[in-house]
Amino acid sequence: MSMMKARSLPILVTLLLCSAIVSSGCWDRREIEDLGIAIGMSVDQAIHKKRTSEEEKQIVHKHKTIMPISVTYQIVNPKIIGGTSRGNPSNQKPYINITSSGDTAFQVARETATRIGRPPFFMHLKIIILGDQVSRKINLAQLLNMNLRDTEMRRTVHLTIAEGNGREILEAKTKNEDLPSFELLSLIDNLSKSIHIAQPISIGTVSEQLSADSSFCVPRVVLHQKEMKLAGAAVISGKTGKMLGWIGEEETAGLNLVQGTGKSEEGHKGGIIEAVIKGSRDPFSYEIGKIRSKIIPIVKNGQLSFRVDIKVEGRLGEDWALNENAFEKDYLDRVNAAVKTRIEQIVNNTLKKAQKDFRVDVAGFGKQLHIHYPKEWKKRKENWDEVFSRIPVSLDVTVKTEEFALKGKKK
Amino acid sequence: MKPYAKSHSPELVPSLSDNLEHILTLLGNSSDIVYREMSLGETERKAVAIYAKGMVDQQFLYSQVFGVISRRFLTEVEASPPDYPQNLKHFAQHASTFGDISVVYKSDQCVSEILAGNTCVLFDEYPGAVIFGTAKDKSRQQEEPASEALVRGPRIGFVEEVNENTAILRRRLKDPHLTFESLFLGRRARKEVIICYLRGVTNPDLVNEVRRRLQKIDIDDPIESGYVENYIQDNPYSPFPQVQNTERPDRVEGALLEGRVAILIDGTPFSLIVPVTFPMLMQSPEDYYDRWIPASLIRMLRTLALFFALFLPALYVALVSYHQGLIPTKLAISIAGTREGVPFPTIVEAMFMEITIELLREAGLRLPKPVGQAVGIVGGLVIGQSAVEAGIVSPIMVIVVALTAISSFAFPQYPAAITIRLLRFGMMLAASIFGLYGIILVFVLITSHVVRLKSFGINYAAPYVPNRVYTWKDLFLRLPLQTLLKFRPAMFKPLDRNRSDQSK
Amino acid sequence: MSSLRISPFSPFQLTITTVSTIIGVAILTLPRVIAEEVGTPDVWIDVILGGIITAVAAMICLHLSNCFPGETFYIYNVRIVGKVLGTLISVLYICNFTTFGAFEARVQAEVVRHFLLDETPLEVTMLAFILVGFYLVSGGLNAIIRINEFYLPITLLIVFTILFLNWKNFEFDNIRPFLENGPSALLPGILPTAQAFSGFDVILFLVAYTRNAQKSTLPILLGFALVTLIYMTIVIMVIGSLTLNEVITLTWPTMEFVKQIEFPGAFFEHFEIFFITIWLLNMFTTFFINLYLASLGIHLLIGWNIKLVMCLLLPVIYGIALLPKDLNGALELGKSIGFFSVLVSTLIPLFLLLIAIARNRPKHDQPVNEGSRP
């Protein structure tokens, strides 16, 4: 082979490539304005429609026992939000909610594509709301499977469970944002401000927990006079992936206290505990700054127990006991003691609920056992939730008050 | 020296009229050639001075040359025994206080000297001619080159006369090692081309290679240095320039001190510097005149400009058409909103805007100065705004294109900017077919090409490749001059690497 | 034979090339592969062990090559074991490189389809990849070395930035407990890790063109340390952020890890753009050297012009890349190649070294065989 031919071969080959590409076209091109950008979605129990006998015959797969689900996508209407000069009258909603039913989420997604000109695009999905009924009946792993498997969706999508139907949340009135989904998202961002709200959880984390068969909590969203509000959490069993029940705001606070600051994406920096100093009637508010808690498994003579060390640092937020003098050291000690008592009360309540009522380990006790005593863990890990409900947990709470803000004394 | 014509050129003969006739044949009957007859002393013997009107310094000619010839020739020359060649030489040495004077024996030499602006004097009975160097210094005012203006720096630029340019360089760089080697290029035009280098610093292999490539050039007339550049570059098919060109003497000075070679060409103020690497094309002399922290920041800004100029439109097309999920959500909604109603796909929109900007740019170059500026700015704004109003393009596209255009203006050297413009279109096409994958493919292609390219033996991607971190001190940042100027860059393989006193 | 025109390069450049060859597919799959094998979160220790073992194997390769200065493996292995066996071994390596190249092409097409271009047929993606690869490789070995030098700093910068940015998602508890099942439980994980390090056998071929090859020991060891560090950090961060059980279920755990980075409000919400870019660049660098060494082998065996050989290899590689039916098939192919490659890269050099020593290896001042030095 002469050198000449060898030298022009790369050029020839490159030309071939170019012509091959140009002639066949672009396969994946989708212009952005042709997409139905779905920001939020909700999964609810479908109104159970009786199938006719023809439809029964058409069903090839034998999934008659599965309850059909109804999925609502909240698709943004960019013209209203984004479009500038070509203005539109603002009585059009900036979003569209579209609901379809089916047996699986994927089926519903495909069906939706037949009903709307712009097929839903999920890469910007930010939040999923599950209805409580469907969460109780179907394993979350199944409900969320499409989201986790499909590359369009991300693991960082937030999950919440609604009291009632998720669809109603997507239709709620919004205060600050254009879309209810964005509104809910900004509420979740506020989670760090209060310990009474459960830690935000993403479907990635849900998947991780379910893979490990460990139980966890998902924040609850409720409709309060047509507006949405975050309060409390839903408890999900690690084994079945189904919802067991609700825990209220105080119990959620207890859970957060046990898990401490380090666990969530942004630590709980805030949260108020109201307490009353022994002997007085007036309450004061204690603002929590840092929570450092550790779950310590103790194995003695083959007996397992846990101790939770909670160290709280904070400041005096508001004091209705006007006769007290914050400048005195003694006073602060009494404040600390009162807060400690209150915290113990809250945490014990929570543990009781988790162990007695739900019989699950929501706070990650098992994980700590696994880390410190792998052998003990191995012995017990099969039925851990059951086992945990019988294990005694003791508390050791320390409270430190950093400062008391600007006003210390009455006179 | 290249022979003027292939045919055998006759020597000058002792007959004046024969010589004259021969030269007339060679020169033709151009109206600007003057044949001035003179008598020698009191005798009947004649001499003829031939010169090109307009190219000679007439005053000089009349007072010095003619006077000397008519008065002193015979006395000086004929006083000694008649030995014709020696007589002429003797005359040249003694009789004239003239500086530039020589003797030639061939008619083609006469002709080239006449054409260079010198005066050729033929003497009766002498088979030779005396050449007086009377060429007029007619150069324009030195002014700062328009294409390479700096905020801080000497406001001088090269001019069209190569001898003037060598003078400029000499004045700036008074090193006795500064060497100029002259050669003549062009079969018809015979332009003087001067190779400049620092003897003892520049690697002789490099100089030899430059000389070799220049001598290989077979061309009618190198009208501009670009012609020479096209002939001596390593790879004519590459979009990248492998030879640097500049009008600024301070750039040349810096380059010579680094161990590079400069080529000055008569007839154009644009000199060539070889070898060159891509990172050098992104540098400006101003980087060294400023302090190192601002200079480093500006360098980084330029790297950002390079990134934008090359990738931005392609990224826009790829993200909006293919990977919408990778754009931040709020931005995606904005873009979708503004693109509602735009009839064209993103790639068409992008191509349309980019081509419009290119047209505007070219148009701005051709228009006379005051109008040109206005057209550029106003044209851009108006067209962009109107296009958005008409709903042909989306506002984000206009921003992308504007940002790209501004970034490409940030390049200190024009050839680099042109290259990037070219490559940008390739990127956009690739992005329109394969999205981000296409961009990556083209990126790999471009870097493959750059890595294979050499400029006079130096890797085009030096000093980034090979990865020797200490050579990066002038690459992304500009480290303080104390560090920078200790050694010459090794990549040019200079003979003397020290720039400062190493004994300290 | 001397149509090669390879300029000698430094040991540092040899290391960079070796490192670029090794870093490839494994970045995406390593966490899952070893997590599957071992099942405990302390698998990062396996990475260190794997690194050490392969570093030793690399030293054997280096030492072997240094016994025959100036000669590339294809030449000197014939000298050690004779023409028949030597040619057989060379052919084995050529097949190894070719298949590896095909595997790279296939896997990158799969990943691109998965994360970037859903609808574009694999055939097109692979074709584009192979052709672009060919353009560089036709520039010769020096071009490959230089482009590795070009890409490696970018790769390192982005990998470490991304690893650092994911700090928020990292939970130390996820990689505890250590040595839960005792150190012996980690042993099964060493084989897949060693597969992740495969590619170091390019040393056998490249030392011939390295200046001062005797001084290569330290640079190569440092290179291995770097790769080990990168792999180890990735495994730790990925398992730490996603938990072991989850990692086992994910096809491309590292990519999911990268997708988790979120700076809401900052311009780049989605950092996988950068990660995919550098990963693709690394796939290219691994492909380049594989294609080149396969072509080099055929060139030295048969004597055809090397550029022609490259052209002829392209359809072969393309064909092999098309063979696996789906992603699982491709990953299976990867596993078998990896396994085979580890075997070949560790055993054959060892074997050859021993024979060479047994036969009294030629001293350094003996005349070197013609036919390999440019």
Can I get a quick summary?
By secondary structure, chain A is an alpha/beta fold.
Characterize the structure shown.
The complex is a heterotrimer of chains A (411), B (504) and C (374). Chain A is of the alpha/beta class and 411 residues long. Helix content of chain A is 35%, strand content 28%. In chain A, helix 11 packs across helix 12 and helix 13 packs across helix 14. Chain B is α+β, with helices and mostly antiparallel strands and 504 residues long. Chain B has three domains: 16-132, no CATH class; 146-276, no CATH class; 288-459, no CATH class. Chain B has a five-stranded antiparallel sheet, sandwiched between helices. In chain B, a hairpin with a 6-residue loop joins strand 1 (33-39) and strand 2. In chain B, helix 5 packs across helix 8. Chain C is 70% helix and 0% strand. Chain C contains 15 helices and no strands. Chain C starts with 10 loop residues before the first helix and ends in a 16-residue tail after the last helix. Chain C is mainly α and 374 residues long. The longest helix of chain C is centred in the first third of the chain and has 33 residues, at 83-115. In chain C, helix 2 (26-38) packs across helix 10 and helix 6 crosses helix 13 (272-302). Chain C has one domain (26-358): Up-down Bundle (Amino acid/polyamine transporter I). At the A-C interface, helix 1, helix 10 and helix 13 of A face helix 6, helix 11 and helix 14 of C.
Measured by residues with Cβ under 8 Å of the partner chain's Cβ, the largest interface is: A-C, 32 and 38 residues
Number of domains of chain C: 1
Mean pLDDT of chain A: 76
**CATH homologous group name of chain C:** Amino acid/polyamine transporter I
Low-confidence stretches of chain A: 1-6, 84-88, 262-268
What's the overall geometry of chain A? Answer: globular
Rg of chain A, Å, rounded: 27 Å
Q: Sheet bearing the most strands of chain C, described?
A: none
